[in-house]
Amino acid sequence: MITLDDIRTARERIAGRVTRTPLVSSSTLSARLGTQVFLKLELFQKTGSFKVRGAFNKVLSIPEKQRGRGLVAVSGGNHAQAVAYVARQLGLPAVILMPQSTPRNYIEATQGYGAEVVLLPSAAEAFDRIAGYETQGWTAIHPFDDPLVMAGQGTVGLEIVEDEPELTDLVVSIGGGGFIGGVATAVKSLKPSARIWGVETEGADAMSQALAQGQPVRLSAITSVARTLGAPSVSEVTLALAQRHLESVTVVPDSEAVSALRFLLERAKVLTEPAASCTLAAADRLRDQFRPDSRVVLVLCGGNTGVSDLCGYQV
After folding, report:
1. Same domain, yes or no, for 185 and 241?
2. What is the pTM of this model?
3. Other residues' Cβ atoms within 10 Å of the Cβ of residue 29
4. Same domain, yes or no, for 161 and 45?
5. pLDDT digit of tens for each residue in the chain (315 aa)?
6. Are residues 155 and 252 in the same domain?
7. How many whole angstroms separate alpha carbon 296 and alpha carbon 288?
8. Helix 274-286 crosses helix 254-263 at what angle (to 10 degrees)?
9. Residue 118 belongs to what H/E stretch?
10. Do 10 and 57 touch, CB atoms closer than 8 A?
11. What's 158's domain CATH number?
């Protein structure tokens, strides 16, 4: 488990390496949901998502002489770009193992940061392959099941509470559970009364299935358009954090996530991923939980939607 001190240490460690992203009020969304709504614009983070926070915290915690041949990671999304960016900033080689279904824009962006991309049939096979790289001296950066990565992601929670100390509710999407685990740890430590609501999309709902069964469940396939939520399973640690801190996990269909993406683009002028816009879709379903004077923060965790994907989404 991670602590508030771990997250504060992470913030000191990554200071100057990442962006403090804005928290803004939205009159349009406040009217839509009948409460006071704020957006945490983490999609404006370096590489377009929160992932660099955890990647930097992990790598910077390792002495330079112990970083081996370079960094290796498994990702079909934002973690790939984050590790590639961190490696370039620190002068390290990077290899990213990606599923063959990874959108072209993610592959090209990762290569643009200087990483070697290895495409494999599935995320599960990519995870199986990573041990071989570790035996060759590469340093693996897990996308979520690492306390240093989670602590880095948790710095988002520090910023939210500092910028909106009267926070009552926080809506956060879930992939493998490291992001929401870190953020929830920070928020609950500083503001115990705040309620944390998790969100997944149908076809990428590893956490809700794990909560239902009381143990991690391995998904046979990721079928949601929210590919960056596509962890094959959560971990024992991220499940425990969810059990400790979350009010519930709302699972929304892709159609609602895409409809919310369109609304955010047209009315809030931000282009998110379905993995981020699903927080608005969930908030629509949770509206009866909010009072008119509630202060609800939706975390828009990433914005790496490709134009070809955007044009192909069906509402």
Report:
1. yes
2. 0.95
3. 22
4. yes
5. 899 999 999 999 999 999 999 999 999 999 999 999 999 999 999 999 999 999 999 999 999 999 999 999 999 889 999 999 999 999 999 999 998 888 888 899 999 999 999 999 887 788 889 999 999 999 999 999 999 999 999 999 999 999 999 999 999 999 999 999 999 999 999 999 999 999 999 999 999 999 999 999 999 888 898 888 878 899 999 999 999 999 999 999 999 999 999 999 999 999 999 999 999 999 999 999 999 999 999 999 999 887 777 777 776
6. yes
7. 13
8. 100
9. strand 116-120
10. yes
11. 3.40.50.1100
CA distances 191 to 154, 165, 187, 188, Å, are 14, 8, 6, 5
Tokens 């699903």 found at: 278
**Structural domains in the chain (count):** 2
Domain that holds residue 162: 4-50+148-312
Q: Where are the alpha helices (DSSP H) in 164-314?
A: 178-190, 206-213, 236-245, 254-263, 274-286, 307-312
User: Are residues 12 and 33 located together in one domain of the fold?
Assistant: yes
One-letter amino acid at 15 equals: A
Alpha-carbon distance of 190 to 4, in angstroms, equals 8
Place of tokens 């590919």: 227
- Residue type for position 191: K
Structure tokens at 195: 């309620």
- The rounded distance, in Å, linking the Cα atoms of 54 and 142 is 10
